[in-house]
Design a protein that fits this description.
Elements lengths: L3 E2 L10 E3 L3 H18 L24 E8 L2 E11 L6 H7 L9 E9 L8 H15 L4 E6 L4 H6 L3 E2 L5 E3 L2 E9 L6
Parallel strand pairs: 5-6
Antiparallel strand pairs: 1-2, 2-3, 3-4, 4-5, 6-9, 7-9, 8-9
């Protein structure tokens, strides 16, 4: 098992870990499947129903870190962070986030944020968010971009994100709203 990643003030003693082993990554993919497909009933292209896992190509991209709370046997939350140099943004990211609006800025993408139904409203979300912000700030990124379902905009605003595009983004998960948060406004 990977070593815990310390989060600010231990947010109610929730431990955030990096998924470093294949077993940990597979547990994250199964947790995503359970949350999105079984619990929320989402129909997402590319889901591996046979192995009951939700894996994205971005999960293995350079600069990607998978964070999770709980244990590989019982994950309670997860978040993917991918950091990009200003000149290394893939075409899909440039189109999705209209990165030309942020000329020359190195940025990170925050994605696949989810918390187990039994832990919603608890400290897992705050622990994941704080750990992510610390990681992003430590890598020198000035900006974090994410997208979310329209019904989650209020939650993302509480995490510091602000919508910046007027159009909706088509994704395999449905239409989403692009949001950003300045890493320089986060405190470690």
């Amino acid at each position: 098992m990977s070593a815990p990643v310390t989060n600010r003030r231990g947010v109610d003693r929730v431990t955030v870990r990096r998924a470093e082993t294949d077993d940990e990554r597979q547990a994250v993919y199964r947790f995503r499947y359970h949350t999105y497909v079984e619990e929320l009933g989402k129909r997402i292209d590319g889901v591996d129903h046979d192995r009951r896992r939700l894996y994205d190509e971005e999960d293995e991209a350079p600069g990607t870190v998978l964070l999770y709370t709980g244990s590989p046997g019982e994950i309670t939350g997860t978040l993917r962070i991918t950091t990009y140099a200003a000149t290394a943004v893939p075409d899909q990211g440039r189109q999705r986030y209209a990165t030309d609006l942020f000329t020359g800025a190195a940025f990170a993408e925050s994605a696949r944020l989810m918390v187990a139904k039994t832990c919603r409203g608890g400290a897992a979300l705050a622990a994941l968010a704080r750990t992510a912000y610390r990681h992003i700030t430590a890598t020198g990124n000035e900006l974090t971009l994410a997208y979310c379902a329209p019904g989650l905009v209020a939650l993302y605003r509480r995490l510091g994100y602000r919508p910046y595009r007027a159009d909706l983004i088509p994704t395999p998960d449905g239409l989403r709203i692009a949001s950003r948060v300045s890493s320089t406004r986060c405190h470690s």
